[in-house]
Structure formats: structure tokens, C-alpha cells
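Appendix B. Extra example for self-study. Work through it before the problem class; the solution is given directly after the inputs so you can check yourself.
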Amino acid sequence: MTTMNKSLIHLLLVCCGTGCVANGAREVYQALKDNLTSDDKAVLAATTSARATGCHGLCAQGPFVRILPEDITYCRVKAADIPEIVEKTLKQGEVVKRLLFRDRQKKALVQGQNDIPFYRRQTRVALRNVGLIDPSSLQDYLERGGYRALEKSLLDMRPEQVIEEIIKSGLRGRGGGGFPAGLKWKACAATPAQPRYIICNGDEGDPGAFMDESIMEGDPHSVLEGMIIAAYAVGASTGFIYVRDEYAQSVASLQKAIEEAENHGFLGENILGSGLDFDIEIVRGGGAFVCGEETALIASIEGHVGEPWDKYVFPSEKGLWGQPTIINNVETWANIPVIMERGASWFTSLGTEGSKGTKVFSLVGKVANTGLVEVPMGTTLREIIFDIGGGVPQGRKFKAVQTGGPSGGCIPAELLDLKLDFDSLSQAGSMMGSGGLIVMDDRTCMVEVARYYLSFLAGESCGKCVPCREGIKCLLEILTRICHGQGEIEDLELMEDIAETMQQASLCALGRTASNPVLSTLRYFREEYLEHIEGQRCPAGICRELSEFWIDPAICTGCGLCLPRCPVEGIKGEKKQAHRIESDKCICCGECIDSCSFQAIKVK
Amino acid sequence: MSEQECEENIEGFRRIIYGFPGEKRYIIAIMHELSRCYRYLPRAALELTAEYVGVPFSQVYSMATFYRAFSLQPRGRVNFKVCDGTTCHIKGSNILLDEIYKNLGIGPGETTADREFSLETVNCIGACAIAPALLVNERVYPRVNAAALKEIIKEYRGGGDNDHHE
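Solution. C-alpha cells for the complete assembly:
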């Protein structure tokens, strides 16, 4: 729980993460400010504080207003709800029931955030402050114990002790590769050249992942603190944070944090009197997926196109401008201060044998509670998707979950009890990546998903090496043919051949893993490929040439909900009588299927 | 900076470019600033950038075409970015693209003849929990469907008419 100033009676936390802002959170916050400062409530203004915080996590139910110390969490709040919240809750101590979270399984209203099933099972380490503090306030961060780890590291420990602690913690990079962070630091410190650089990789490129965005926006100082500790450990003087072009709010939040940290002596010359000089600069990316790869990112900072180089020598020895460089991703940096403060042995008490600590996952797609989830490594997919995520909505059937972004793979229902960590995911033919979990139901076509990823990668391959550039193109052509009903049975073997070459001969991780979406779907959903090729049918009803829809008259209630949704007026039927689809008009867009509450519309 | 301050001539380019240190590593930052002002990268501005930071024009040109954030064609006053990240894709971003084509006659990478509207797809804007998402200039619209999109287009068309009175 966050701390409160003594004269305060209420602290209101308004979620201003990207999702909530899109749903009107800024207007909610403004309405709250206006209501508190209007004249007749002067008493209220003096005893109530409102904070615009980072992402609260359960984006599906936002915007949130959380009231402390009572811990009342209001969901889906609109600016128009504010007068009632002020009048009833703040002045009279009553709860506005209609704004509470509704637990559908227990059919009950839930008042406190920690009583919502989505939150109850989480362990928030990297996200410890996100949603509790105002990211623009250094004071808020300090009250939550911020920069204590920096003080401890700089004043009580020698640099090699800091590195030793990070190695002991077993912390592995959260950006995808899972390389032990401490070993990178050690290698960097052992290379004699000066100057040395620290880089934060904030180029969160995996579509479907937004945990780094949420940390940069909601708790920027935790990233800075981690980087400063590393600068001390390896003797670096300059740091760079490379932020994805699409994340304007992250840039603003980090910029403000850097200024504040400079003003208070956490950045700049002779930090905390320790003799360490360190500055941090923000670099905005240009929108290229490959720049998430560390050598491509370094090339981009230097002012080149983002082409990777072969890592005969690691960046920890020869990185930015040929100098020793540590590069870790946002979530990794946010873990550093907690490890230094609470100790490596505390950190290793969380997680599995080979993967210590927690991991933030973005749980999205066809799942009821979409949002950010942080759980100990080793939590099963079933717990995350069903217990925390509330399962697949609209009574549809779970089919697969995609992990690891375009370099990852699709994991089928049979593997729902898989314990999530770096190693188990690799064994299942996927990877951790940055932690995107995209849930797919029976309305998702696995062949089309593979085609989607390859078309994504075709646009993002930098084109430097042949296996990646040409391999992706060939795979995409074949997959597109299959989706259009022109696939041949030999195609499956051919794709496996191409994939193997790409895995072995590509220059960087993008090319080496680019075939994973194809290989993992071939491994677990081969039937669906065969259905497309031999059966000339797309069971999910997504590939238009291979789909035909019909309405089951035994199920259709004639409610008429689908009629206006059909863009070609291809559904006919009287009210309260079974409808039918005129197949010569139908363009198989699927709007009707997704609007039907009774699942009466079927794929032939 | 208001649009009037961004004169599309050599003085305007100088004002922007000379605001950065003349080093290679600021090329992307310069191009971001040029894009913000002109909604695309004018060739003359890129030539000046190359000269200023001391690299061949081909290098600046290769960067301008490599990174998705930049365009060599002018974008519309209203720039639609349909998110085609994985989540938005499986939740129907293609329906949004179809709908925009039906209403405005433009596909990804295209601008209407009157330079009012342009359309792009982006890989992921990190709004996966409220998919499918649409970015119009800087504003994010959550859970957009065909009907909502029609309303959004109407809203910005209205803005187009108001422009004449400014």
C-alpha cells in the first residue's frame, strides 16, 4: 500500500495508462480536480489528493478510480460519475455500488482491488509502483522506497559486490533472449576500454506486448535507478534509453523523470557524493521491429539504419561506438533496484530452478480480463488464462495461446498446464519473448495467424542476409496460397525445409526465429493445414475463399441482432423466426458470427 | 509549434535542422522533427540534413526509407493509423481497413487527393487490451468497429470544413 500524508483523509488514484486514456481517463481526472477545487468543497480539497497514475493493469475494466485508505476500486468510470463519487463516497462514506467490479463467477460485487481475482494471484515486483504513484513525482517514488537501493549500492558496496549480487540473483534478461544480466555486467566491467555505456532497450516491438510501455510511463524512476546502479558497477559515464517511436507518453514521462533526478543529485556529477558521474539521454526510435535486436538498436543510436551485425563479439565488449556496453530491457532494469534492496536470496525465492523472480505478461486477445499480469516464473498457462484472465469470453472454446511475439509460437490446449519460464517455453517450440500472451479461440485460424506473422516479418526483416529476407518471402507466399485454397500437400514439407535453413543460416535472432510461427502451428495444428489443403475448408471461418456460413435453425431465436451487422444485407428472416444466410451475397466477413449471443451461426 | 511556423522552404528547414548538434547520431531526431512539422520529409530538407551532419545523401535517404515512422509522400491533415498488431489483427483490424477504403477510397500508404486524409497501418501501439485500436493523429480510439469508424470519419470531415474559416 502506498503511503499517505497525515493531513489527508483520502487519496484517489486515477489510472492514466494508455488504455484508460483512450477510454476517457484524462477527462475523469480533470473532472475530479475540478470537483475538488470548486469553492464549496474547500475542506474536501485540503484533505483529498488525486493522482494521475500509470496503468492499473486490468485494462478491460478501465478507467479506474481507486480510493485509499478504504481501497474502493471503481471501474469503467466516466467524467459524469465524478460528482456522485465525491458526494457519496468522499463526503458521506458510502460506496457507489454500480461502479464496483462484478465478479461473474461468484456473481458478486467486489470492493477492494486486492479482492478482484485478477489481482489476488499476482506478485508485483517490476510493477511494484505502477498504478500507485504519480510518475511525474519524484516524491512519490521516494516515499515508496525509491533510490534507497542506489544509496546502498553506491555508499555501502564495492562495484564488484554489486555485480556479484546480480549474478547471484539469477536475473535473466526480460526482453526475449533470457541471457543472465549479471554475466553481461561482469564481461563489460572486465573489458579495459573506456568510456563504457549503459543502454535501456525500450523498443518494445512484439505486437501484443506493452509491459515496458507501462513501466516507462508509470514508474520511470525505477528504470533510471537500475541504470545508475549498473553505471556504478561497471564504471560507465553515459546511458541511453531507446524508446519506440509509437510511445510518446513514455518519452514524456522519462524526460520528466530524468530532469527531476538531475535536480536532486541522482544523475549528473558526483552522484550522492560517491564520485560517480552519469548522465542519461533519451533516443526516440524510428519504428523498426528489428531495432529491438541489440546490435541493430546500437546501430540505430549511432545514426545508421537498424541492421544487426553478427555477434562474434558481444556488445558487453564492443558495443556502442565500439566501446563496452551493457544493454538490458526496461523490465530487467526495473528489477535491479528491488534485487539490490532486498537481496539476491529474496529474489531467488521466487520462480523456478532456471528462471528466478517474476515476469510481467500482457494478457490479450480472446480473453475476458485483458491487461497486464505479473506472476512468479513457473505459474501455469491455465492459472494465468483462466484464474486470472477469466477464460475465453462469449462461451467460445479456447484454442491456443501465442507467446513470444513474431519469434514465438502457438501453444495448444493440451499444454495449458505448462509452467511458464524461459526453458519450458523453448521446449514447447515457442519462447518467452517480452511476455505477450495472445489468447486465441475457435474463431482464430492458425494458418492465417502464421501468415499474419510472416507478413509482419516480411515488412520488418532488414534485408541484410539472404536466408531471412528470401526465406520469409517464400514462407509467406506458400502460406498465402494455402489461405486462398491453393495449397498443395508438398508445401508442408517444403516449409519445414526452408525453416531449417533460416534457423541455421540467418545472421540475427530475427531470422533465426522467424519460422517459429510456422513450425509451431505445423507441430500442433497440422490437421488445420490439411483441412485447408485437402478439405478446402477453413474450420475457423476466417479464410474467406474456404469458408461458408449457415444459421442453425434449431438454435437461432430470431432476435435480429445480426441483421444490421451484415454489411451486404445478406441475412433474411422474420423476427422471432429462424434466420438464414443468402450464400450468394455472403462475403464471409464474420460480423454476424461475432455478434450472435447464441452461437447459432456455424461454419460449414 | 503551430503549422504556420513550419514554412516549407529552406529557411524553415534550417530553423529545424540547425536546432540539433551537427552529428550523425541526430539524423533520426531531425527527421522526427521535420515529420512533425511537414507531415513528410521534403527532399530538400534531407539534402540539407546530410550536408549538415556530414554524411552522403544516400545514407540519410536509406534511413528515411528504412524506418516506418517516416514518409516521403505528404500525409493527410488527418492521419489514420490502423493498428495491425496481433491482437488487433485477430480482433478485426481488416474490417477497419475495408471500411476506410469504402468511405475514403484510400488503402494503407495512401493519401486522399485533397490531402485531407491518409491511412497507414502500424505494428502495435501497445493498446492491445482495448483492441482493435485506431490512432487518429495523436488520439487513440478503443474497440473500434465498422459503425464507430463511420462516426469517427464524419467527425473529422466536419473538422475539415471548419478549417476554411480559420
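Self-check: Chain A has a mean pLDDT of 93. If your reasoning did not lead you there, revisit section 3.
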